[in-house]
Amino acid sequence: MDMVLIDEKGNLMHASVPRHLVSRFKRHVSECKLYSLRNVKITTNTYPYRPLASDKKLLFLATIEVVKLDADAVRIGMHGFQFVSLPVLQARADDVTILSADIVGCFYGYGEVETVGARLKRKRDIKIFTDYSVTSTITLWGKLGELFDPTLYTQDGGPYVMVVTSVSVKTYQRALTFATTSASRIYVNPDEQHVSSVRERFSALSTKVLALEGTSASKLPLEEAMFVNQITVDDLVGATCSGELKAAIATLKVIITAVNTRFEWYYVSCKSCVKKATPVGGVYVCAECKKPVDYPLHM
């Protein structure tokens, strides 16, 4: 169980509860409540990704003391965001080690909920004017996309400044795009100094939220979608390499001639570096870390 803690000075820290202690703390720790923590351990985050830029995290131990405080015991801000500059975002593009912190911008457009990919994942795209004056797309995956109700923000001209936390950043056609993760949350016009300044900047502009025209084949029944944007493999490869691919989704008619069985469908991996772990003396040992793996993953 992972969480982000904030103190009275606005400092943020990633905190984690080991799997065997989750049942103990899950009922006693809630969002937006105040707690005093004692006997904590500060360690280095060795997981493949982390929600904050720092590689340090607070680890809950069996000996930790968690005391719930009254709401007026200490003044701590309700929100803690990590906004970064455009050069930092560009440097983090396509790097999954660090989530790109928190994205803030003026909400101005939204698409319908769509089902995409072989795993039939649900998503909704929204558009924002970022605080560095660039239009960007944020993909809301899963429940975030399904539960987000854009009609709440179409009744007047706004502006609605939206903060989406813990997003991943990628480059698509030379532009930065963002996508939510399991750690993401959405806040609209939160009471925060930087958000207030962004809202004031856009207050003089026409920022009415509009529905975006959808062109995705995912809205069609499968028997119709299979005939949308049909192209050959050669055309697909050529258009991708030259950057001339116009459609986000294309349909290929192919025949599977062979299946490569040289590699297994999955392997047992280390939970820290995700390299292959092999059984040695009754336990799995990571080939990279050279350490026993208590809870190996199946990749």
TrEMBL record:
It comes from the Eukaryota. Residues 1-67 form the Replication protein A 70 kDa DNA-binding subunit B/D first OB fold domain. Pfam families: DUF223 (PF02721). InterPro entries: NA-bd_OB-fold (IPR012340), RFA1B/D_OB_1st (IPR003871). PANTHER family: OS03G0429900 PROTEIN. This is Replication protein A 70 kDa DNA-binding subunit B/D first OB fold domain-containing protein. It comes from Daucus carota subsp. sativus.
